[in-house]
Please model this.
Amino acid sequence: MINSFITIYDTIKTIVSQFFKTLKWKEREHPKGRKPVLLNSEIVAAVVFKQRQNIATKKALYEILEPSGSYNRFVVALNRVATYLIRIITAVINFLRREARPVKFTDSTDIPVCLNKNARYHRTMMSLSEWSKTGKGSFYGLKLHLSADCEGRVLALKLTPGNSNDRNIFKKMNAKLRGLFVADAGYVSEPLEREFHIPNERLLLTGTRKNMKKLATEIDIALLNLRMRVEIHFRVLKLCYGLVTSFPRSIDGYLTHYLAAITAHLVS
Model:
């Protein structure tokens, strides 16, 4: 089992190292100070590997990889690579946009930072988290907004507080994209449809609420039924890459965890 883990880690490390070489990122942050035990690419590969294998804790990751240096230094190193993860995510999304199909889907999902019963005592993510409600009930945490085309390419994503307005985020997140955008009834808004529309370039199609008189064509219904294409990303991120967690003990730890899960999904 350990040998299998190491093989997967080496594969991820090769992919991450290629990003560092191609984009000419520094492997060491402090060339004149104390020499880091691990290269930046090795640290990034470690956090992506943790989410790729859905390893619950950093302690378990440390025992699997057995890196040089203390556990405390290892944890500090893991929590400082968020910038590199953002750059990798951006690079992959920019690449995927080149082959994007005209039909695109946008949706959001909840990311609780703790159980509801613990929310009043939660301090770590207090500055970024908010109460909100979904069809499943209330939660305290963040939202992940994501746009993907009909073939599953991730074209845009954004992390926001839980009470953020999906319609406002939709407009900002997809500002540079073109095509036919399909979203559920949560995005219904005449001002949004009007402002987002660009003749012959961009159009928003949303679901309807029960109290609306708007009629949908057969093509509209068929497209709305394909919204599962974007919801699959949320299921994979949560079930396979452990997106939702309450283990981190710092904001950097939480954000690194989320970004590593997204990176693992994009490069897998």
Observations:
- Residues 2-78 form one domain.
- Residues 67 and 193 are 52 Å apart (CA to CA).
- The chain has two domains: 2-78, 100-246.
- The longest helix spans residues 2-23.
